């Protein structure tokens, strides 16, 4: 350990962030990297405790705790506190293909299960992870991983989100020929078109794709598998196929006047906003500029819509959620080492608070109907408050009489989650799905085989909408299985 008593000498300090009023004038990342002294102090807060939970990624009474990719957190904290950065990078690369993505966007379940968090603030694990990889790129230590020898096996990965990228990276390193198919114009999945630039700059995604291409992985963009390339062509050209197509089929709210102009799914809005940044931010078909914007849905996708609308100079942004605000402290049924379900002022909400004078979030609100004018444009929303009650052990959401409210709206963004994966490509491959429309895989959390021999699935398409870190874990695990499959048999007629 760098300092044996670092956890007693230093308080937790998060990375500084740019001033919310200033940062909404541009689309740059809002977090500022630690300086040398800060990172030394923060990493030395790690106690290197005897039984760390931070790295477990294991199931604990029905919930997962700790880091899903099992990063060797105490080890690299020690290396960082000793300023042994290159060694720390090599250690981190053992478990995480893309620390620059998780270091920016992971909600850090590791920190919730840090032993220090029992009675103090946890170690700033995520920020340290990000600093390790950034110093790796700064010093050109992140190199292409070209295998010394190649097998004659060819693998197709469908979808270039974090699951597909992790699977491709692993299988390429094992010596197989890997081609990643992506229907969008740029690889990255939701890392590219989904998570906004201020959380994850797109140069960061491109930087990693460049390394992967130099490692020998082929990327074929603007190609929708099942439409532009058929199952039969895949069968002819590849020994195995991994479906990493995500779970981006949006959930709708089929209420009165849903067909009004100015009502969009969150993903259509966010994707258009990101694409516009390649030319001119104003060059988007769906802009919030000068509008009363209402985001329906209290989750993280909604939060990204709030931050995007503020940057497009919305008149006012409001976000509706069905649930009550989270408590300030852990409740009895959410103990350490579980992820703390406590109140957080996410970046977009802080920006809303500072620029609009109010937190954009409105809790326990249910949209009843939309109102439109004679040209079909949405003009307002009607809502009622709701409350949760427990009846016979079940949670029921009741409307509260007398709480009807009308909200002016020129742009409505629907961010109430996702139904699951889009079905067309799954039907094209004849894959079985489960009761929630996800790709069925053989029972057992670590079995990624689908109902078709030689076809595997990983990421959100298999587990439902989740997190980048889980997609990376699934990508790594599916690669192990596909490798075993390829090395095990004569794999010519599989799909
Ligand atoms: C707005 C938003 C913000 C988020 N923010 C965070 C965050 O801050 N932190 C976090 O950890 N997680 C976040 N998530 C969740 C996270 O992005 C996903 O869990 C993760 O990206 C899933 O990875 P994946 O590889 O399984 O799928 P995806 O990233 O969804 O990628 C699937 C890819 O497959 C492609 N595809 C689909 N069908 C075909 C086909 N037939 N042919 C070719 N290509 C195809 C799609 O175009 C897409 O590029 C966010 C999600 C959203 C929607
Ligand atoms: S990947 Fe996420 S959970 Fe794992 S160490 Fe990084 S921030 Fe923590």
Report on this model:
It comes from Filobacillus milosensis. InterPro entries: DPD_II, FAD/NAD-bd_sf, FAD/NAD-binding_dom, Glut_synth_ssu1, Glutamate_Synthase, Helical_ferredxn. Pathway: Amino-acid biosynthesis. This is Glutamate synthase subunit beta. Keywords: Amino-acid biosynthesis, Glutamate biosynthesis, Oxidoreductase. This protein has 3 domains: 133 residues, Fumarate Reductase Iron-sulfur Protein, Chain B, domain 2; 164 residues, FAD/NAD(P)-binding domain (3-Layer(bba) Sandwich), CATH 3.50.50; 165 residues, FAD/NAD(P)-binding domain (3-Layer(bba) Sandwich). Helices cover 31% and strands 17% of the residues. The strands form 5 sheets. The chain has a 5-stranded parallel sheet, sandwiched between helices. It is an alpha/beta fold and 495 residues long. The longest helix is centred in the last third of the chain and has 21 residues. Helix 9 links the parallel strand 3 and strand 4. Helix 6 runs antiparallel to helix 8. The termini are far apart. The protein is globular. The chain is built from 17 helices and 18 strands. Bound molecules: flavin-adenine dinucleotide and iron/sulfur cluster. The site of iron/sulfur cluster (SF4) has 14 residues, from helix 7 and helix 8.
Can you summarize this structure?
Keywords: Amino-acid biosynthesis, Glutamate biosynthesis, Oxidoreductase. Residues 154-475 form the FAD/NAD(P)-binding domain. The protein folds into 3 domains: 6-138, Fumarate Reductase Iron-sulfur Protein, Chain B, domain 2; 154-248 and 420-488, FAD/NAD(P)-binding domain (3-Layer(bba) Sandwich); 252-416, 3-Layer(bba) Sandwich (FAD/NAD(P)-binding domain).
């Amino acid at each position: 350990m760098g300092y044996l008593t670092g956890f007693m000498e230093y308080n937790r300090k998060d990375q500084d962030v740019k001033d919310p009023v200033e940062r909404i004038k541009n689309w740059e990342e809002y977090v500022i990297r630690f300086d040398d002294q800060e990172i030394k102090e923060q990493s030395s807060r790690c106690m290197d405790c005897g039984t760390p939970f931070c790295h477990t990624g294991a199931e604990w009474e029905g919930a997962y705790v700790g880091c899903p990719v099992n990063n060797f957190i105490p080890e690299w904290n020690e290396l960082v506190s000793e300023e042994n950065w290159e060694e720390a990078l090599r250690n981190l690369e053992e478990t995480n293909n893309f620390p620059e993505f998780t270091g920016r966007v992971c909600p850090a379940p590791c920190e919730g299960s840090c032993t220090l968090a029992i009675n103090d603030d946890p170690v700033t694990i995520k920020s340290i992870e990000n600093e390790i990889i950034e110093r790796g790129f700064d010093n050109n230590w992140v190199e292409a991983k070209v295998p010394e020898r190649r097998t004659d096996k060819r693998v197709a990965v469908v979808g270039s989100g974090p699951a597909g990228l992790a699977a491709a990276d692993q299988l390429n390193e094992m010596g197989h020929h890997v081609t990643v198919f992506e229907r969008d114009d740029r690889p990255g999945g939701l890392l590219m078109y989904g998570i906004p630039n201020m959380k994850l700059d797109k140069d960061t995604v491109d930087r990693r794709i460049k390394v992967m291409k130099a490692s020998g992985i082929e990327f074929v963009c603007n190609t929708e598998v099942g439409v532009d390339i058929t199952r039969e062509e895949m069968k002819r050209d590849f020994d195995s196929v991994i479906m990493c197509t995500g779970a981006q089929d949006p959930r709708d709210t089929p209420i009165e006047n849903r067909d009004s102009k100015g009502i969009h799914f969150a993903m259509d809005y966010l994707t258009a906003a990101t694409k516009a940044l390649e030319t001119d931010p104003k060059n988007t078909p769906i802009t919030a500029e000068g509008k009363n914007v209402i985001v329906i849905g209290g989750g993280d996708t909604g939060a990204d819509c709030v931050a995007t609308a503020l940057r497009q100079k919305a008149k006012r942004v409001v976000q509706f959620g069905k649930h009550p605000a989270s408590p300030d402290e852990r409740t009895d049924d959410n103990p350490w080492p579980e992820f703390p379900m406590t109140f957080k002022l996410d970046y977009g909400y802080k920006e809303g608070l500072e620029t609009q004078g109010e937190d954009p979030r409105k809790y326990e609100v249910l949209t009843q109907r939309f109102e439109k004018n004679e040209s079909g444009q949405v003009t307002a929303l009607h809502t009622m408050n709701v409350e949760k009650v427990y009846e016979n052990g079940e949670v029921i959401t009741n409307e509260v009489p007398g709480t009807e409210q009308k909200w002016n709206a020129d742009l409505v963004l629907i961010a109430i989650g996702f139904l699951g994966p889009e079905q067309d490509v799954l039907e094209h491959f004849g894959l079985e799905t489960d009761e929630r429309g996800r790709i069925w895989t053989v029972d057992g959390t670590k079995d990624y085989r689908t109902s078709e021999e030689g076809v595997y699935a990983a990421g959100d398409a298999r587990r439902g909408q989740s997190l980048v870190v889980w997609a990376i874990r699934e990508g790594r695990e599916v690669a192990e299985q596909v490798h075993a499959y390829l090395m095990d048999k004569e794999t010519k007629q599989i799909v």
